[in-house]
Every structure is written in structure tokens, then in C-alpha cells.
Write a structure and sequence with these properties.
This protein is mainly β and 419 residues long. The protein has two domains: 7-250, no CATH class; 262-418, Lipocalin (Beta Barrel), CATH 2.40.128. It is 2% helix and 54% strand. A hairpin with a 2-residue loop joins strand 26 and strand 27 (407-418). The longest helix has 4 residues, at 155-158. The radius of gyration is 24 Å and the shape is globular. 40% of the residues are buried.
């Protein structure tokens, strides 16, 4: 397994991967876009499906592969051995690698009302040989309650969709077998000269149960034959993505009904500072200073959307590494920006919050008392620790530890200021 990437899993947010912020005082902005909404605009007004509630968790499994059409391509290189006689530009050969990966995308509903739904997402890379998974990234979105990205469309809306089979667009009702069950389903498929993309939805619940796509990359310039001659044109790499639903369940998050503390609707910025450290067996440990700044971009009752600006220290003489990401948090989010102080007071050390056998993770209260509360997610190759102030409910520190091959990467961030 070399890497995990999938457009239907595409909610990555960078270094500080799981928490979120937003703003209660301002009016909610237009929900995050959905690629399906243009096909079913009525879903924007449909409200949430009956099964969607704070704490609902959906787990998808996905795989992706990049299959080269050629083994080598020509690339511009001022020191290359090949010369374009017409332009004088020089080229050299470059291998075209293949890549493949697998992973879980775990969605959790943190807040939902008639109009919008806040969703958190965590991605777990799967090692198919060792049959283990590890946390890789996280993020979130605020979407229409009746059409959340491509994850679901309200079933009442799906019932009214008419079948189509023309001009590269196919919308067809069909039985669909998955995980030993036959669904009454509807399939949306788009075909073009570059490939296809298909989404299959369960007509009863409205949830997406399958997604598949194939995309042909642009042609590449290929090296001349061994005996000499002109360069050729070869087929680019083909990207294949497939994913399907694995599990749906309601998690009884202890703080899901507790309101957000007042500061959530008032802050303008939260700053965390710390260290990113990398430890490789036999090579020692390397640490870099790190700063993360959280700024609200939208807020509503008990949900937040934020931007996160990260800065990583680099060696002297080099500019710092900077990144920008987006995320969300809600009143039922596990590992979010806050937990209601009223709920914190009722939590006890050792209390289990949730367990996911697919990702091989368990989340529990690992510390309660002594002036802080710690919620920890522990997997076979990673650990996430979220520490909260019992008085304010604010996230005061975040630690992530990830075992990647022979290396271990740790992010340790602590609250440094609030405006």
C-alpha cells in the first residue's frame, strides 16, 4: 500500500486535523456545495432524513489506484539528453509510477436542524497486508440537511427523480447487492470521453451506498525508440476510485444535547502553539516549532465552521511552511473545539465514548479531574488526545501520535491565546 487518496473522501484539512471553530453571532452562510444538488435542487428544502441526528456515524470503505498508460515520459530538463530540434528545449526521461491505496472515511453528525447539518470526517489509511488502519487526516463540512455533499439525498426527493438515459447521463432505478443485502436503489452516472462517475443511493434511507469512477489522464510525451527517432505520444495514467458503505449507527455521545458555552459565539481567534516531532529508528528525533491559528468563518446555534492557518518552523534561511485548511465542529462532535462544561462535570475516567471495530479504534475518557478532561482515541498505530478545561469547556491541547512505517510523527499543540 503506497498511499490513500479519494475524491469522495476528499475532506482533508492538514496538520491540525480534527477540531473546528466558527461563529454564532453572524448569520449562517450558504452551506458547503454538493455535487448532487444541481440534479436534485428540491433537496435543499427537504430537511434531514429521519435517521440523521447528532451522534449518527457512517463508515465508508474506499480504494483508489493510478494505473500508468506508459512506463516512461519525457519531461523538460535543461540538462536532458533529448533536444527538440524545433524549439531547442531539452528533455529527459522520467518513470511513471503506479499507486494504490485503501482507507476508511468515518463521518459523524455533530449538529443538525431543519436547514443544515454539521459533519466531521476522519480518514484512516488501511494497510491491506497487515490488516491494520491508522488515522491519517480529518476535516468537516456544513451542508444542506437534505443533501449533504454526495453522502445522502433525502429519500422523499429521490422518490420523485425521473429516470434518464441520454447524452451521457443515466439515472436508473435498480436492485443493488452490497454486503449481502439487496437494496432498492437509484444510480446516477455520468459518462464522457475521459471516463465515468457513478453514485448509487439507497431509496429507503437516501444514503449513498456506492461510488465508483474512472478518469483517463492527459496523454504524455514518450521517449524515442532505442534506435533513435522522434518522440511519441502515449496514454496518460488512469485513475480508478471505488467506495461503499460499511456501517451506520447512532453513537450516544454524552454531551450531544448540551448547548455550546457562551464563548463559542464570541471569539474571533484562537491560537495554539507547540511542536511537530519526527522519530525514525536509528536516525534520532527531529522537532519543529508549530503554530495554529483558528478563525471562525460561519456559525449557528451549536455549530461552527473555521479556517485554520498553520505555520511550521524550517531550517535557518528557509521560509516557514504555511498551510490553510477548513473544518467544522458541533455540539455532538467527538474531538471538537469544545465540550459543554455541564457535560464535562458528569464524565468519569474510563468511560467509553465510542468504538469502531472497522477502524480498530476506541474512544474513552482517559483523565477526569485535576483541572482537565482528556478524551482519547486509541488505534493500533495511532493515538489522539484532546484535553479540555472543565470551567470553560474549551479545547486546551491536542496531541496526535502516528506510527508510519519505522517512523513516528507527533503533533503536540497547546492553547496559547484567545481573542
Amino acid at each position: 500500500m503506497t498511499r490513500n487518496a479519494s475524491c469522495w473522501m476528499g475532506l482533508c484539512v492538514g496538520v491540525w486535523m480534527v477540531c473546528a471553530a466558527g461563529a454564532l453571532a453572524q448569520a449562517p452562510v450558504v452551506p458547503d456545495p454538493s455535487i448532487m444538488l444541481p440534479l436534485v435542487p428540491e433537496a435543499a428544502r427537504a430537511g434531514p432524513p429521519a435517521w440523521c441526528k447528532p451522534g449518527t456515524r457512517i463508515t465508508y470503505f474506499g480504494m483508489t489506484a493510478s494505473i500508468p498508460g506508459e512506463r516512461k515520459q519525457m519531461v523538460l530538463d535543461e540538462n536532458g539528453k533529448w533536444v527538440d530540434q524545433a524549439t531547442g528545449q531539452r528533455y529527459d526521461e522520467q518513470d511513471i509510477p503506479g499507486a494504490a491505496g485503501a482507507g476508511y472515511n468515518v463521518l459523524q453528525v455533530g449538529y443538525v436542524d431543519r436547514d443544515i447539518v454539521q459533519i466531521s470526517s476522519r480518514l484512516y489509511t488501511v494497510d491491506t497486508l497487515r490488516k491494520t488502519s491508522t488515522y491519517s487526516a480529518g476535516g468537516g463540512l456544513v451542508a444542506h440537511a437534505g443533501c449533504a455533499a454526495d453522502y445522502w439525498i433525502h429519500p422523499d426527493v429521490l422518490k420523485e427523480v425521473k429516470e434518464v438515459n441520454a447524452a451521457g447521463v443515466r439515472i436508473l432505478r435498480m436492485p443493488y447487492m452490497l454486503n449481502g443485502r439487496v437494496y432498492k436503489a437509484i444510480r446516477f452516472q455520468n459518462d464522457n470521453e475521459k471516463g465515468y462517475s457513478a453514485y448509487v443511493y439507497d431509496l429507503e434511507s437516501g444514503r449513498m451506498i456506492f461510488h465508483g469512477s474512472r478518469t483517463q489522464g492527459a496523454n504524455v510525451l514518450t521517449p524515442p525508440p532505442a534506435g533513435g527517432g522522434a518522440a511519441g505520444v502515449g496514454q496518460g495514467s488512469t485513475q480508478i476510485i471505488t467506495g461503499w458503505i460499511m456501517d451506520v449507527r447512532d453513537i450516544d455521545v454524552p454531551w450531544k444535547d448540551a448547548p455550546a458555552p457562551p464563548w463559542v459565539g464570541q471569539f474571533r481567534q484562537i491560537r495554539y502553539e507547540g511542536v511537530q516531532s519526527s522519530l525514525v529508528a536509528g536516525a534520532g528525533e527531529f522537532g519543529r516549532g508549530m503554530v495554529l491559528t483558528i478563525s471562525p468563518t460561519a456559525r449557528g446555534a451549536n455549530w461552527l465552521r473555521f479556517s485554520a492557518a498553520s505555520t511550521l518552523q524550517t531550517p535557518p534561511g528557509m521560509p516557514p511552511e504555511q498551510g490553510q485548511s477548513n473544518g467544522t465542529s458541533g455540539q455532538a462532535t467527538i474531538g471538537g473545539l469544545w465540550i459543554s462544561p455541564q457535560a464535562i462535570a458528569k464524565l468519569r475516567q474510563g468511560q467509553e465514548i465510542e468504538r469502531n471495530d472497522l477502524t480498530q479504534t476506541a474512544t474513552s475518557v482517559t483523565e477526569a479531574g485535576r483541572g482537565r478532561l482528556v478524551i482519547s482515541e486509541v488505534g493500533r498505530l495511532h493515538r489522539l488526545d484532546f484535553a479540555y478545561d472543565p470551567a470553560s469547556g474549551m479545547l486546551t491541547s491536542l496531541t496526535t501520535v502516528q506510527q508510519i512505517g519505522l517512523g513516528r510523527i507527533t503533533h503536540n499543540l497547546r492553547l496559547a491565546g484567545q481573542q
